Amino acid sequence: MPPKMAIRRLDFFYEKKQALFGLSLDIPANGILAMIGPGGSGITTTLRALNRLYELTPGARMEGEILLDGKSVHGADVSVTQLRRRVGMVFDVPTPLPVSIFDNVAYGPRLQGQKSKKILEEIAERALTQATLWDEVKDRQHTPAMRLSGGQQQRLCIARMLALEPEVILLDRPCSGLDPISTAKIEDSLTLLKQQYTIVIAPHNVQQAGRVADRVAFLLSGRLIEEGPNGEVFANPRDPRTSDYITGRFG
Amino acid sequence: MMKTFREKLSGRVFFALAVSSIAALALITLFILVKGLPVIRSVGLFKFIFGMRWAPGRGEFGIFPMIVGSVSVTLGAALAGVPVGICCAIFLAEFAPAPLRNIFRPAIQLLAGIPSVVYGFWGLLFVVPLIRDHLGGPGLSILAGSVILGIMILPTVISISEVSLLALPRQYKEGALALGMTHWQAIKSVLLPASKSGIVAAVILGLGRAIGETMAVIMVLGNAVALPHSILDPVRTLTTNIGIEMGYAAGEHQQALFATGIVLFVIIMLLNSAAQFITREKKHK
Amino acid sequence: MKKARRREKLARAVIWGAALLVMGVLLFIIAHVLIKGLPVLSWEFLTAPARDMGRAGGIASTIVGTLLLTAVAVAIAIPFGVGTAFYLAEYTKEGAVTRIIRFSAESLAGIPSIVYGLFGFLFFVVYLKMGWSILSGGLTLAFMILPTLVRTAEEAIRTVPRSYREVSFSLGATKWQTIARAVFPSALRGIANGIILSVGRCIAETAAVILTAGSALRMPASLFSSARTMAVHFYTLAYEGISMPNAYGTAALLVLLIFLINVVANALVNRFVAKGNK
User: Fold this and answer.
1) Contacts of A91 in chain C (CB under 8 A)
2) Complex confidence, ipTM
3) Which residue of C has its CA nearest to A96?
4) For residue A7, how far is the Cα from the chain centroid?
């Protein structure tokens, strides 16, 4: 099966500082790819390149190619807004917009012109259920999202992204700063979601990668060190730097 | 298709709106210059600015006494308002207990919002008689104007100075205290020098406000067109000259008032540029 | 060491003294106006037309004049001021263009109101033949409050967290959609605060208004009528000694209005800040 997304010889720069060096990586469909590595390895940069969100950062530019279903995401016929709907993203800090829970989830569909209250309610129920938040908020969907707990806010952000029915989901340390129970809930929903979606996650620690990932990619200082199935990378790392990192010798 | 059109349109519309400030400034400059310059040309720039006689009926237009009036009242306002204002800013930034600060700040905003005519009237009722009875002269005087304007520039001086004091890194003060300085020594020898450019900008903006004020000073300055000999003498400023005579001026007389406006405008632009320059210098450092 | 302590005490005393002096003066001015003016305020004073040049009767026409003039000024200045702020904060990088726009706005902020009055008289009253009218006065005040609106709105837009924009873009929003649906609602309080402060400036302004809106005491019939605002009315009554009680009544109403405006503006900002911190 061809990969859902593919990164080909990606060089990435912030002004003159290079952040990624010739990165090539396949993102297989319907699975979870975990990108691990110490801070500053270029993982967030990679994620933000996949949905072209880096273009908001002044001075950021890339060379190389990123493919979605075999077609370049920079192609002339690709609209960046369409791309970001197909490649959804959740950030490391929960970022609900300062409106109600319902309006947060409805934000994306409304952008596409969906006005029907009934359809929006259906979308909200489906997305909130997928994010395992429905039972907790179904009776107070019209209260401010800011009143939710941190873990609930992050699941709301996942629901908000799922409301668009994306094909690929990018999660940038989605559980950093969350309590273990919230983290477990999010991990549970990820294992359900991967049957339908292609997921790339930057886990907040190596253990999380071990728990949820199908494949693992290890990056160091902007270079891909090794990539392979979860079991293999953790059991028999080919590169000594990988084993140093996963056994906690640095990072 | 529709969407990209809207995207482009929104950018253009915002740009067009943003040009309004430039257009407004250009329009104001243009109209005042066109109306006022002919009279400066016919009288002569030197005679207009340094002329001692203002007699519109006889076509004599010299505004030197008013320039002296504006400058003296503005300097007086600075003497009266700046030390008090800076002390008040230090009070708010360093000494005031939180509840007091929460009363003070809105109170100073209120001070900024009160109509200038109310200040002028208050000055006429209280400051002018006080000066007349205790210091002599007509009471309507440079001193009265300075006191009123000194009060009116307080909000500007206080708020901008306070902001620049609060913007200092905490380590400055902690470092100074760690060296064994008293609180006042730390303020005097570390905090005030470090926020100097902000305070200078505050003072300049305050001066700009003072020299541009009209209604309050009309009521307390006496408005005589003559060189003052002491701070107890009445004067006329550039602004009050316009404010008093615009109501009935016509022809060349009206043009001469616009020419007065030009001089005022130039002074203000110089002050503003100085303040902008100083704050920008600070940012570059 | 002893000297330092004595100095410390002296400095404290001077600084506290200055602060109390400022508060004392403010209280004096406000108390004086309110004590003399509040007894004059009555329903009749607020709703009756002025008679005998303001010696008798109420101030209804000046209240209407003030409101209309302010409404015209604010309605016209808001799109330009807020639009400029969005352009500066969202649509452009810092460069020559923004420097010129900022320089213009800051210069406008420093121009004395009497110069705005001169300009408004020449441009609106004479050149565009609008005469002394609410429209001329309102347009002149719109020029005057433009820089305040630009500054406060730009600050409000810049305090909207960057993450809101990223979230919106990541959900497939275009730039315009992001600004209209994520940034604008979050900046609304700050923008409203700026608008309210501008309303305060319009209400308090005298010099620019006299030269552009005139001082007719009749009830304005349309935006093309000349009108006298409360501030101008107070000035005329007080300075020409027409009626002290009515002057105080007008001043008290002005001060109360300004007080109210400040309270509302502060409430907006404080809740704005509290929300941003969460």
Assistant:
1) 163, 166-167, 170
2) 0.92
3) C164
4) 15
Which residue, among C186, C171, C172, has the nearest Cα to C90 in the 3D structure?
Answer: C186
Separation CA A79–CA A77 (nearest Å): 7
Domains of chain A in sequence order? 5-99+168-246 (3.40.50.300)
C199 exposure class (CB count in 10 Å sphere: 0-12, 13-18, 19+): buried
Q: Which amino acid is at A56?
A: L
pLDDT of residue B112: 92
A245: closest CA of chain C, how far (Å): 31
Q: Which residue has the tokens 């001043």?
A: C251
What pLDDT, on a 0 to 100 scale, did the predictor assign at position C5? Answer: 85
Q: What is the reported pLDDT for C50?
A: 87
C171 touches chain A (CB under 8 A): yes
Yes or no, beta carbons of C170 and A89 under 8 Å apart: yes
pTM equals 0.89
Distance from CA of C145 to the nearest CA of A (A): 30
pLDDT at C132 over 90: yes
Report how far residue B31's alpha carbon sits from residue B14's, in angstroms, rounded to the nearest whole number. 26
Q: Tell me how crowded residue C271 is: count the other CB atoms within 10 A of its CB.
A: 11
Q: What is the pLDDT of residues C160-181, one digit of tens each?
A: 999 999 999 999 999 999 999 9
Distances in whole angstroms, Cα of residue B151 to Cα of each of A12, B127, C46, C174? 58, 12, 30, 50
Residues of C in contact with A98 (CB under 8 A): 164, 185-186, 275
Nearest chain C residue to A162 by CA distance is C171
Q: CA A26, CA A34: separation in Å to the nearest integer? A: 12
Sequence-ordered alpha helix ranges (H) in B135-250: 142-152, 154-166, 170-178, 183-186, 192-194, 196-212, 215-220, 238-245
Interface contact flag, C171 A82, Cβ < 8 Å? no
* Three-state secondary structure string covering chain C: CHHHHHHHHHHHHHHHHHHHHHHHHHHHHHHHHHHHHHHHCCHHHHHCCEEHHHCEECCHHHHHHHHHHHHHHHHHHHHHHHHHHHHHHHHCCCCHHHHHHHHHHHHHHHCCHHHHHHHHHHHHHHHCCCCCCHHHHHHHHHHHHHHHHHHHHHHHHHCCCHHHHHHHHHCCCCHHHHHHHHHHHHHHHHHHHHHHHHHHHHHHCCHHHHHHHCCCCCCCCCCCCCCCCHHHHHHHHHHCCCCHHHHHHHHHHHHHHHHHHHHHHHHHHHHHHHHHHC
List the chains bordering chain B where 3 or more Cβ pairs fall under 8 Å: C
Q: Which of the residues C167, C176, C184, C186 would you substitute to probe the A interface, choosing the one with the greatest number of A C-beta atoms within 10 Å?
A: C167
Domains of chain B (ranges; CATH) run 68-238 (1.10.3720.10)
* Backbone dihedral region for residue A9 (phi beyond 0: left; psi -120 to 50: alpha; all else: beta): left
**Chains within contact range of chain A (3+ C-beta pairs < 8 Å):** C
- What is the rounded distance in angstroms from the CA atom of residue C127 to the CA atom of residue C129? 5
Residue A146 sits at the vertex; the CA angle it makes with A144 and A149, to the nearest 5 degrees, is 120
**Partner A contacted by C188 (CB < 8 A):** no
Contact C262 B83 (CB under 8 A): no
